[in-house]
Design goal:
By secondary structure, the protein is mainly α. It is built from nine helices and no strands. The chain binds heme C (2 copies).
């Protein structure tokens, strides 16, 4: 019985072993990314640099391949995504590394008795809570659940297996900027229907309500 189990293990996991992800390599590459996206990939400058930590690894990898092929324009990142700089194996490593960085949305209560200044500093650096924007959260929530949730997941958390990005926990400015790119045909929203930009069906007012909901959906 034991032997059979070992064989099963070998068959199931061999393909993974061959293309094993190297998280140490990913961490090293991320030092370059951190120059813009920040040490824990939480982005900055109010969304000029998007938060990428915790995004599905396959979504990150896909966007990097699009930048490299210049199918999605990204001038600041171009020098970092040339094939020589970023071969596929590096793309997979850095995407897996960034995917597993976990941010927090609020600081845990202070432990007065065993205060650890270094630990506290680390927690502060890993904290990201998108500021609430004014808007009709209730309308936004029901629109979101009806029109976006099937792909972007419950509470805007994204879907790892389908490589759909999380929207809650992303800077509102960044989301708006991407809406502009989809509408202008500079990005493709839904690969299955590239000619139908689904955000065109929504007014700015409706999207504003959706983003208001998403800006509080990341509160915990
Ligand atoms: C020189 C600055 C800079 C560096 C270095 C950089 N990025 Fe970026 N990155 C950007 C900017 C700016 C954007 C947003 C582009 C836009 O507005 O569409 C971006 C967007 C992205 C996105 C798309 C996110 C989304 O949700 O749409 C991913 C993924 C990404 N970067 C990953 C990386 C990785 C991985 C590295 C390191 C290999 C890296 N970036 C290095 C500036 C940078
Ligand atoms: C059919 C599935 C589907 C539906 C429905 C959908 N999306 Fe998306 N969305 C995606 C996928 C897939 C991506 C990543 C595509 C890419 O490569 O640019 C995405 C990306 C985005 C992005 C860019 C995020 C980033 O980090 O770059 C925004 C903003 C967005 N969607 C908003 C919405 C909103 C708002 C709705 C509802 C009105 C919606 N989407 C409905 C599949 C969907």
């Amino acid at each position: 019985m034991k032997i059979i189990k070992q064989w099963l293990l070998l068959f199931c996991c061999l393909p993974y072993a061959v293309s094993a992800i190297d998280l140490d390599n990913g961490e090293e590459i991320n030092e370059v990314c951190a120059g813009c996206h920040g040490e824990f990939a939480k982005g900055g400058k109010d969304g000029e640099y998007p938060r990428i930590s915790g995004q599905p690894a396959e979504f990150i990898a896909q966007q990097l391949r699009l930048f490299r092929a210049r199918e999605r324009q990204n001038m600041p990142m171009l020098p970092h995504t040339e094939a020589r700089e970023l071969p596929d194996s590096d793309i997979n490593d850095v995407s897996a590394y960034i995917n597993q960085i976990q941010l927090i949305t609020q600081l845990p209560p202070m432990d007065e008795e065993n205060f650890d200044a270094l630990e506290r500093l680390l927690q502060t650096k890993k904290m990201l809570n998108i500021p609430k924007i004014d808007g009709d959260v209730e309308t936004g929530k029901s629109l979101y659940n009806k029109e976006c949730r099937s792909c972007h997941g419950a509470e805007g958390k994204g879907k790892e297996a389908q490589a759909v990005p999380m929207l809650a926990g992303q800077y509102t400015n960044y989301l708006w900027k991407q809406v502009g790119k989809y509408r202008a045909g500079e990005r493709i929203h839904d690969e299955d229907e590239p000619d139908e930009e689904l955000l065109n069906d929504f007014s700015d007012e409706q999207l504003h309500a959706i983003f208001a909901y998403l800006s509080v959906a990341d509160d915990e």
